[in-house]
Write a structure and sequence with these properties.
There is one protein chain. It contains 1 helix and 28 strands. It is mainly beta. It is globular, with a radius of gyration of 20 Å.
Length: 324
């Protein structure tokens, strides 16, 4: 009877841990050093997993079961990635990246995890299958911050804040090497995103209030325009490509940009230090991490108004969406 009871208790515990909502909003709380799982339907936090100090960005595997987190650090520069099982809500590995420090941006391509190491001016690649870092690409640019790929993973882009540049890495035909083109943009490019058609990369320049448009085919800046931000943090296109959302960390606002007109058309006051942005798969709502006030603003993308708030914990920033 005791063995049977223990087995039942164990099964119940596993079932409880496996209660990952679908869909789920995965949030990193920098101040709590915690990954939290939020049910967007009711706003409840359904799971918490400790990470390294001051986690900033994350990606989730294609099957929605594993999260990869950059532990940027705060008082001490971070040197790790957390690999987290979202179903059992446990950290599987904490990958030691030393001597690389300040891992920040993160992206997934062809099953491997790419991350920036700001201090080292490079992008690294982590293979979950071997639990090893198996490639390093230097940018030669100061503060290599964010990283992303185009749809077929043939191009990789980094935003280099102190380098005032965007790096475009082109994969060789055999996939063995990458060739870099450095594109000068405005001052302090931090957030960046590709238009839905993949033809342009827009860089939100945090130090001069502008947006630089990089033509992907020619790898040159085709236009720059001012949106009046005090310190832009992230930029994200709506699914239809008609608008871009820019979080203004210093002004406490979300700026709505008309893409065709290339101008700011609305500013939504949110609170202290809005940072991360994620748009749900259906495109109806955006979620903005208001870091300084410890909540996530839910934005109705038809009316561009705040339709709700989620309370995930202290210092929310990086987010990812799981399910539909």
């Amino acid at each position: 009877m005791r063995k049977t009871s223990f087995a039942l208790l164990l099964a119940a515990a596993i079932a409880s841990a496996a209660a990952l909502p679908s869909p789920a909003l995965i949030v990193l709380n920098k101040e709590d050093a915690m990954l939290v799982i939020v049910d967007p339907a009711n706003g409840k936090v359904t799971g918490k997993v400790p990470t390294g100090e001051s986690p900033h960005e994350l990606v989730v595997s294609a099957d929605g079961k594993t999260a990869f987190v950059t532990n940027y650090g705060s008082k001490t520069p971070g040197t790790t990635l957390s690999v987290i099982d979202l179903v059992t809500q446990k950290e599987l590995h904490r990958v030691d990246l030393a001597p690389m420090t300040k891992p920040h941006g993160i992206a997934i391509a062809d099953g491997k995890i790419w991350f920036t190491a700001e201090t080292n001016k490079l992008v690294g690649r982590y293979d979950p299958a071997t639990n090893k870092v198996d490639a390093l690409l230097g940018t030669g640019q100061n503060t290599t911050h964010m990283v992303m790929f185009n749809r077929d993973n043939s191009l990789m882009f980094t935003a280099n804040i102190a380098g005032n540049s965007i790096s475009i890495f082109s994969k060789s035909a055999n996939g063995a090497t990458w060739n870099q083109t450095v594109v000068p943009v405005g001052k302090g490019p931090e957030g960046s995103d590709l238009t839905p058609d993949g033809r342009e990369l827009w860089a939100a320049n945090s130090q001069d209030g502008s947006v630089s448009i990089v033509d992907v085919a020619s790898k040159t800046v085709s236009a720059t325009f001012d949106i009046g931000t005090k310190r832009s943090n992230r930029i994200k296109f709506t699914l239809d490509g008609k608008h871009a959302l820019v979080s203004d960390l210093a002004a406490g606002e979300l700026v709505i940009v008309d893409v065709a007109a290339r101008r700011a058309i609305k500013r939504i006051a949110l609170g202290k230090s809005p940072e991360g942005i994620v748009i749900e798969p259906g495109g109806a709502r955006a979620y903005i991490a208001v870091n300084g006030d410890n909540f996530i603003a839910v934005i109705d993308l038809k009316t561009f108004t705040v339709s709700g708030k989620l309370m995930p914990g202290n210092g929310p920033d990086g987010m990812a969406w799981v399910g539909r």
